[in-house]
Amino acid sequence: MRSDFEIYHMDISGVISSLRLAQSVIPEQESTSERRRKIFASVAGQKISFTPEVGEEIDLQLRNCAFDDDEKLTYLTVSVNDPNRPTDLFQLETDMRYHYLQIYMKRATELGNPLVKGMNFVELGPEDFKVELKVESTDPPTLQLAFERIEKVLAQVHTEYHQFLRSMYERYKDEFEVTQEFENGQMRYTAESDMDKREMIPQPGEDDFEIWTMEGDVEMHDRITISHYAYDYVKYAVGAEAGGDSYFALS
């Protein structure tokens, strides 16, 4: 369901002093060139409201859209009001990046040439944050799709399936060992474990949920597949926790 919403401003000085703050990479202003003005006018201001599977209604707005002539990329700023988000923005960022990789980056059309070239998260308040995207397109419908990807990924985070993934992380994170390797001027973090993935198989009657890759009832062979997804998620989250922002493929 789509509907307009208002962005409420509040004095949050002192409230978020203990929260993780990130530096904005996109100026909050409309561009001046003719090309930039056309792009800005075509998509900026669009709004989405939706209620996820688990939690309360979430509001998104495309606040800014500007083309960078040097990088040949369009910068999008998406503001989000999410009353369901964890206090730690880094946890939400990890979860959103993980599902973005699973839903979009593993497509054959985007392997080696992703539509979204960069992603940056900025803390605004206990329920509010913004996601800044660098998109390789100036086509308004394509930019609209990039904006809608934030909706789909955030919706995936607030599902019973993701709650299962998070529970596996909390239960088995200490089973993983992180190794570090300096490569191409950057530190690479890799988490591995010799645990049996079958320990993560969701049990019928205890862990019943739907996931976007499967239709209908979840059969036993599906549950085995889900255990592999859970292992990959825990591996990703453990690596992210160890490496911080430098771990993420989308910088």
Describe the protein's architecture and organization.
It comes from Halobellus rarus. The protein has 251 residues and is an alpha+beta fold. The protein has helices at residues 34-43, 89-105, 140-157, 160-172, 220-243, and strands spanning 47-50, 58-68, 73-81, 116-123, 128-135, 177-183, 186-192. A five-stranded antiparallel sheet has the order 1-2-3-5-4. Helix 2 packs across helix 3 (140-157) and helix 4 (160-172) packs across helix 5 (220-243). The longest helix is centred in the C-terminal third of the chain and has 24 residues, at 220-243. Residues 1-32 have low confidence and may be disordered.
Summarize the structure.
It contains five helices and seven strands; from the N terminus they run αβββαββααββα. The protein has helices spanning 34-43, 89-105, 140-157, 160-172, 220-243, and strands spanning 47-50, 58-68, 73-81, 116-123, 128-135, 177-183, 186-192.
Percent of residues in helices comes to 25-40%
Uncertain ranges: 1-32
In oligomeric terms, what are we looking at? single chain
How many strand elements?
7
Topology pattern, helix = H, strand = E: HEEEHEEHHEEH
The share of residues in extended strands comes to 15-25%
Q: Averaged pLDDT, please? A: 82
Give the N-to-C terminal Cα separation: 31 Å
Global structural class: alpha+beta
The largest sheet has its strands arranged as: 1-2-3-5-4
Biggest sheet layout: 5 strands, antiparallel
Number of helices: 5
C-alpha-based Rg, rounded: 19 Å
Form type: globular
